[in-house]
Amino acid sequence: MTDVDPAEVEPTRRPRRRPARADLLALGAYVLLGIFVCLNYWGDVSGRVSSHLPTDHSWFEWLFAHGAYSVRHLENPLFTARQNAPDGVNMIANTSLLGVTLPLAPLTMLLGPQVMYALYLGGALAATAGTGYWMLSRHLVRSRAAAFVGGAFLGFAPGIIHHANGQPNFVSNFLLPLIVVRVLRLGEPGRWRRNGLVLGALVTYQIFINEEMLLLTALACLVVVLAYAVQRPRATRAAAGTFLAGLGVAGGLTLVLAAYPIWYQFNGPQSYRGLQGGVFHNWGEDLVAFVTFARDTWAGDPAVEKTIGLTEQNTWFGWPLVLLSLVALVLLVRRSLATRIVAVLIVVFSVAAIGPWVRFDGVETGVRGPWSYVPDDLPLVEMMMPTRLTLVVAAAVGVLLALTWDAAHRQGRPVADQPRVPAQRAGEPATSDDLAAPAPVAARRRWLRPVGYAAVALAVLPLFPRPLPAQQIDPPPHFITAGGWRPYVPAGRTLVPVPIPSNVHGLPTLRWSALTGQEFPVPGGYFIGPNELGEGVFGAPNRPTSSLIYFTMDRGAVPVLTDENRRQAIEDLRFWRASVVVLGAHPREAVLRELVTGLLGSPQRVDDVWVWDVRALVG
To answer: Which of 142, 294, 333, 594 satisfies CB 3.0 to 4.6 Å to 316 for a cystine?
Structure first.
């Protein structure tokens, strides 16, 4: 893919150098915006979690602690027995963020997982915007302001901010612009080895950050390459051999570096195949969502969620941006190869994201969507949510914003500043790119520059993010943080917190493990593991005692206990290799203490918790 009009795809290759000061200002603005988005966490970083996804927030705090524990104890980071004891958790088969938590392990040991979570979240948003800015400014647009606007949208789009509520893996997209650039440079003559090696290294690293976003990026690159090939067949044929050679090098390096982790993901202990029932396939994007303002933007209204319903707000662009995008596509699509490719991306991935049934304003219309024809057990696709395909649309819109601003920037420029029109290729007409407009036309269109700037500003300003909402959470017991548990938990045994951590219950007790550096293992947890059929399910299979605890919590009263309940409790404690059961402050503390007392006998009050030393019971 080397035979490209410079004015269409890479107009930045010119003698003039971009001042480093502008780049630093852009990066500084992104960092400040990242801090602003996380502002509510910094008010009490040790006592606040996401209001929207508190359990996910706690899971990622636990992941930072896992990275630090793995480095400190030199353990295999692909697996842990510190959660879901004694079976453990296959970390590479879960959202583990190992590419981040392992390198940052020293900082986690120093600052703690709570501070590390908030610090990293803002940094990941800023880093993604920064690499997006680099991609745009070096390879697509001439205006630094255009690159800044596009980069800001790539890093802080409404869908990205929505995922920032407890899911930092979906805001950790800083490698994706680099991967896209490297894919598009595979066809450079004489550089296929270097480009392939760099691409393979980037892809391997991305596997340890977010495989789903890597898959989406691969699909987007496939569409881009095919769209380019259709429009530039001669250039594609000329570069095909070099491109494929570089792609082979990238694939070979990735296979060598990632073969064992990928094998471990699908064949290691606690691995699974697909999710039970393909539960994600119904999560398509509502058509009204595209023109709706996202909840966490200045123009957003949280009440709208109740109308549209099940959606991750991956689009939620608002009607001004949708209108601007349509107008920009109409005006630029005939003049710019890049815009035509962006248009293809938007159409293909918007349609694909609809899901199995078309929904309009929260109502299922009965019209079949594209995912109704996709088998639930299709490899690689089985874990995908259709709505997340619109994250590609969001990226394409970010690029379109940069192209639109850049086109406005060129209006009214003197002839000396205008790039020359590229020579016509044999057999292909020269493109009349808007960026290469001759001076007389540009002079007549000077009014378009302020109009273009204003249109982009009016479309994106309502999407300026609010600080992420945070809620206060009870601090862990002093018994836990001060190490009072240590005499009760010898090596090879577990601490059983009440309630037992799960995907629904036990959020505070999961944090006990994270905030103590995972020094004691716990049963249950928040993860995906196999059921008896090998299908992925959320959380550990409930044992009789954990089910009884959850039932009592939901009911608010202790059921009549039998000798069978007591026998099952002892059997479950043996399975968990428990040495102590601990109940701290909890809204259901009284009823839970009555339940556990009925099962195990009277507890001791130690520090600020109730303790049942069960070593004599379980042997």
So the answer is: 294
